[in-house]
Write a structure and sequence with these properties.
By secondary structure, the chain is α/β, with parallel strands linked by helices. It has nine helices and 13 strands. α4 packs antiparallel against α5. The longest helix is centred in the C-terminal third of the chain and has 20 residues. The protein is globular. The structure holds zinc ion.
């Protein structure tokens, strides 16, 4: 039996995201003796005001927050972390790799742009599209307040204030579930969302390491997540939901649908990840180019890991082929 929602000691603080991208949740939790803020949304004045008002309505203020816990390093979940910590002295906690991965994701220098250009062109993306995508990148910069340090790291399997820490890399490499051990609820970040399919994007690897196949990794984590009793899930976006296995199964079946669309299509001469993205998203514009190519590459890597496709680089560009076409 799942506990009634009202007994979870959790209060959502929901704020708008920039670029009309919908809303993002922070959560206040006071069940463990320390007033804790899970996630820190975006660094807008509006988000700050909403947080202050929500705290005031319960007779508290930002200075009363004793701990900030992050579900992952994406910019729409860390924006106010620094400001809250500066004002309250709160302990900042998260996945041990969070500062490293934030640095790898949110760097705007020439070296990062060169890495992105090489990656995308190697996946078959025309260079004029890569150039216009890179021109747009600085638009994101004012909204990125990345976390460069933590006061406390939270390895997989450790415990914090009644929660068990469960790492579920995939959507991002730092995705973490906080599973309350007695009260029947979990803080689940963006690992699973009820009405959105979280899509792992391509990631820059740490120096000397290979790029992770993020959709393959995500599916492994979904299987792990399915086996955990989460109770009520408080997600990074959208309302709380109870049946997390149903949500996991919907995401996995979405991946299978895309797999079928790709397998029914690729010509015997092979397809690049960019061409596959065009097939999946015929109207894709430059503002979603990185996202769409990420989805396509993820599906192709998944199909290759399942033995359905094979890949080879020809003149520096990666192509995927049906296994039968090449014998
Ligand atoms: Zn998010």
């Amino acid at each position: 039996m799942i506990a009634p929602l009202e007994t979870c000691h959790i209060q959502p603080v929901t704020v708008a995201m920039p670029f009309l991208l919908g809303e993002v949740n922070m959560y206040l939790y006071d069940g463990g003796g320390t007033l804790t803020l899970f996630d820190a949304a975006v660094p807008t004045e509006e988000a700050w005001q909403v947080l202050q008002k929500t705290l005031a309505a319960r007779g508290a203020a930002v200075r009363d927050i004793g701990r900030v816990v992050l579900t992952h390093h994406h910019f729409d979940h860390t924006g106010l972390a620094g400001r809250v910590v500066d004002e309250s002295g709160a302990e900042l906690c998260g996945h041990p790799e969070l500062p490293l991965q934030a640095g790898l994701s949110y760097t705007f220098d020439d070296a990062h742009n060169a890495w992105l250009a090489t990656l995308l062109e190697g996946l078959g993306t025309p260079s004029d599209l890569v150039a216009s995508m890179l021109e747009r990148r600085p638009l994101q910069k004012p909204f990125v307040h990345r976390v460069d340090r933590l006061d406390r790291t939270l390895p997989d399997g450790t415990h914090l204030d009644g929660f068990r820490v469960v790492h579920v890399p995939g959507h991002s490499p730092t995705d973490t579930l906080f599973v309350h051990e007695t009260d029947g609820f979990s803080i689940t970040g963006d690992h699973i969302l009820e009405h959105i399919t979280p899509n792992p994007i391509m990631r820059r690897p740490p120096p000397g390491q290979d790029r992770i196949k993020s959709l393959v990794q995500y599916e492994e984590s979904l299987v792990r997540c399915r086996a955990v009793e989460l109770g009520w899930c408080f997600p990074g976006h959208g309302k709380p939901f109870a049946d997390h296995r149903h949500v996991v199964d919907r995401i996995l079946s979405r991946h299978q649908d895309r797999n079928r669309r790709i397998l029914a299509w690729p010509p015997g001469t092979g397809a690049t990840p960019y061409e596959t993205a065009r097939h999946l998203y015929p109207r894709m514009g430059v503002e979603v180019l990185f996202f769409c190519v990420s989805v396509a590459l993820g599906q192709l890597e998944l199909l290759e890991s399942q033995g359905m496709l094979t890949s080879s680089a020809e003149e520096g560009v990666l192509r995927y082929f049906p296994v039968t076409a090449r014998g």
